[in-house]
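This protein record is not my work; I was only asked to verify it. Where you disagree with what is written, explain briefly why. This is what I was given:
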Amino acid sequence: MNYIEKMNTTHLDILKEFGNIGAGHAATALSTLLNKQIDMKVPSARIVSFNEMMEMAGGAEEEVVSVSLRIEGEVTGNMFFVLSLQQAEHFISNMTGDKSFSFKKAEGKSLGLSAMQELGNILSGSYLSALGDFTRLQIYPSVPELAIDMFGAIISYGLVESSRYGDYAIVIETVLKEVEAGCNDEMKGHFFLLPDPLSFGPIFEALGVGINE
């Protein structure tokens, strides 16, 4: 059993709280970017097996949009923000005003693709910033990479290292909603955290909540 499997509800509550703090920062940044009031929350943080992770994305062969990055510094690992094609296209249409945007016809529409990458950059940066502020650890993201592919192909890079030490990952659910009378649109995505071996130990130690060996 590896250290991810030793996490309890207290550890997950801490990760969720970081997510909510980061969500607040991200919502502010997105509201400014879109000139709309955006609300963002993190309903849950939990540990899932790699098989469950695949199911959450609709299966290994489900085509998705992902913004991925490498976590570097005193905590290392891989982070993936994943959306369904439909959710991502809806976001880009609202963000750019291009109601005809489609990933199937994305050639020449670099503005929409840049918008998607910027969303992932804002969300992941806000989360990691909140994590670093509270733990006083040096944590920073690499340049995010945008991919439109089958989920299994996208996530495989992060699984190569993690699978050597167990078959579990941390998933943080994310919900974004435009705050406007009569608007019920929500965008639901997931952060998948695939930490390197022992990387989350320093986080909980910095907070005084250790992981028992």
